[in-house]
Design goal:
The protein has 15 helices and no strands. By secondary structure, the chain is mainly alpha-helical. It has a domain of about 80 residues. Helix 1 crosses helix 3.
Length: about 325
């Protein structure tokens, strides 16, 4: 089956793509109809058996849940249950997700939580249920309990990048940036080429720098800039990376140019600290980020082929960032 995140909200597509996908559910069900179906495990002998088929069912299930097409979501879930069995770990997690979506009150959510607890009493090693339990606790506002659940997960599976990323997000939510940085660095140990995680780490360093002063503020901004540079090095057209680079270099220029004298923040080989970048280097990076953001906005706006996968909200934010920078130059 597909390995979509169990911690994040269903279907990471933008609303338009999610709606389009859910609208294809009826046609997909029709294409899968046959004169008879075999029960599991005889269904393994079916000629229509394929990993892509069941991945499609799961994707449709998540999309239909997100668009409130509960009937179609239920049909997808039934097909997955018939194929893999009710005791399949991922099926149990998807069933729990469906119950969460159908819950209309806090009391009903508590019942779903109790159901997760009962499953874990029988087998505490089912990580998919633990992930759903952590996500449900977070949605119910029980942040500390959710953090505890994620920590227990990591005690058992310390290389679970998804759980480290979710824990980092929860620490950011609480303003615990140092702990969030640690978690994201653990993600990068497992997935060193994950450009989105490098960018996320850059965001956390930037947020942390807003609380800092003097040399620490400069150090935080510099590290943030380096992380965004790494993200776009790994993915040349990554909008979020260029947005972050534009933002951090802009702040760095203000900090470096506004200083009465050079900041005392030299390199420290023992601590692993690097010297702050030069004004010239920061200015060039700012110009490069500006040019690339402009290119992305222009190509997306003209509906060029191959440039249609960007999030509308992120494009709007990038446009506003460029306009804000242009206004400062005019003044």
């Amino acid at each position: 089956m597909a390995t979509a995140s169990l911690l994040q909200p269903p279907t990471p597509l933008n609303p338009h793509h999610t709606l389009t996908l859910s609208q294809r559910a009826a046609g997909f069900f029709k294409s899968q109809q046959s004169s008879f179906t075999l029960p599991y495990p005889l269904s393994l002998l079916s000629n229509t058996e394929s990993q892509e088929k069941w991945a499609t069912y799961e994707s449709l299930f998540l999309a239909c849940l997100r668009t409130s097409d509960n009937e179609a979501a239920y049909l997808c879930l039934e097909e997955l249950t018939d194929r893999f069995g009710r005791q399949n770990e991922r099926v149990m997690a998807l069933q729990g997700l469906y119950k969460e979506a159908m819950a209309g009150s806090q009391g009903e959510l508590e019942e779903v939580l109790t159901g997760y607890d009962e499953i874990l009493k029988e087998d505490p090693t089912i990580s998919s249920i633990r992930k759903r339990r952590a996500a449900l606790l977070r949605s119910m506002g029980k942040v500390s309990e959710s953090v505890q659940e994620l920590v227990r997960l990591l005690d058992v599976s310390p290389t679970d990048a998804e759980t480290w990323a979710e824990l980092a997000d929860m620490y950011v939510q609480q303003g615990l940036y140092e702990q969030a940085v640690y978690c994201l660095e653990e993600v990068l140990v497992v997935m060193p080429n994950a450009w989105n995680m490098h960018a996320r780490l850059g965001e956390v360093f930037y947020l942390a720098s807003q609380r800092q002063e003097g040399g620490d503020h400069l150090k935080g901004l510099s590290e943030s800039m380096r992380r965004f540079c790494r993200s776009i090095e790994l993915c040349d057209d990554y909008l979020r990376g260029y947005y972050g680079l534009k933002l951090t270099t802009g702040s760095l220029l203000v900090t470096l140019e506004g200083a009465a004298k050079p900041q005392k923040s030299s390199s420290d080989p023992v601590a692993g600290d690097l010297a702050p970048p030069s004004i010239e280097s920061v200015r060039k990076l700012n110009q490069a980020a500006t040019a690339k953001l402009g290119e992305i906005i222009r190509r997306v706006g003209s509906a060029e082929k191959g440039w249609d996968g960007y999030n509308e909200a992120e494009i709007k934010a990038a446009r506003e960032l460029l306009e804000k920078g242009a206004q400062k130059i005019e003044r």
